[in-house]
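Case study.
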Amino acid sequence: MKVSPKLDVPGLKQGHFQIHDILMFEGIDASLLAAFEVASQHRHVAKGTVLYIQGDEAEWFHLIQSGWVKLFRETIEGSEAIVDVITRGHLFGENTVFENGCYSYSAQAVEDVELISFPTKLLKDSIEKDPKLATNMLQSMSRYRLQQHREIEHFNVQNAPQRIGCFLLRLILDAPEAPVTLHLPYDKTLIAGRLGMKPETFSRALAKLKEATNLRVHGSSVTIPSVSILADYVCSHCSNSFPCEE
Amino acid sequence: MKVSPKLDVPGLKQGHFQIHDILMFEGIDASLLAAFEVASQHRHVAKGTVLYIQGDEAEWFHLIQSGWVKLFRETIEGSEAIVDVITRGHLFGENTVFENGCYSYSAQAVEDVELISFPTKLLKDSIEKDPKLATNMLQSMSRYRLQQHREIEHFNVQNAPQRIGCFLLRLILDAPEAPVTLHLPYDKTLIAGRLGMKPETFSRALAKLKEATNLRVHGSSVTIPSVSILADYVCSHCSNSFPCEE
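After joint prediction, the assembly is written out as follows.
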């Protein structure tokens, strides 16, 4: 789930998110918001730290302030499958309140990460108290569902360079005219895994995308000289136009 | 969203679903269920009929009794992207109540289809009245989200024959010892599209799957002689084992 678009502009906006910035908490009673604020914990997590393992009891859900987190599962044969690679403005672990109370995937900080963590028990109790919170979560999940439909659609209609471009565009929620520099995980194979590509396919596709849109990559920085050129290249093969409504 | 596993066994169980069979309505007040029953319409829809177009105002959501329905979107360039291909036991269109009240994709009957349709307005009003309905929907959407995570994971860790096998296994929610015959859409390119495969990749992969698991395909019928052999072949490359918990 994403926070309100007005704040979810990684690489463009500095500053900390707070509980009331999260779309899920929009319009929620101030005393309830205050309870979440009181119960929250700010955490600095070092690169490589495993935050939790799939199957662990879900005590906390988290909002990323900075850095990248990898969500993954292990297959029965023991290989790792990347579920998502997410960054500032994203919540994770909040869904456990509708499941069996355990994390359905593992989470690891792929670089130094700053988090705000909230108790899942408080969320579970609050949903019962405030129907607005349930409705907000339904809306967020519905948007998320559309976004995932879009991704499955993309396997069908977009080529690999376009899918990388789409991943980048989803990190920019408005359409600035000036060049945009994004901060990605240093290890690009994570993004390859996230997009269901083999690392060698990803490298070739990224080279093609750079050529087509003048993208520049330096270590963990990606500079997009023109968001509109990138959007033209990517979104012609999608049922949405940029910026995505969900 | 799926109905309760106990009834969602396409190709194995005959008979009609009713409102109280849908997991979303589990534990809901009897008078509210009765209101849905009274407002429902049974529909027989001929093959090829477009049920609605993306962007149409969403008056109805539907439960499939028999047949296959294609959900799709059009890209800006005009090609068709398959969002899903679904069959009996599946709901569609119910999510529109959390969106802007319009269908976010188009729907077409890919063969003769039998539906029960319910007014979305009644659902929207009922969610406000009965918090249990909101919680049920959150649970269903959460399961759906896990399932979609699993699919994105599969692009990474499963080969094409395994992904076809997984699609088939998801149509069987228990693990019978006897052979199972499933009814698929006659036009297999729909499933190819659903799985993000080119038709030629799909044909090669299906041939490989038949060889590995003794699967037999006759027109729109697929016979799985041993579900456990198919599950062994497919689920070793997944973080779940068969039958899937979601």
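Observations recorded in class. The helical segments of chain A are 30-39, 120-129, 131-157, 160-169, 189-194, 199-213, 227-235. Chain A has seven helices and eleven strands. We will return to this complex in the next lecture.
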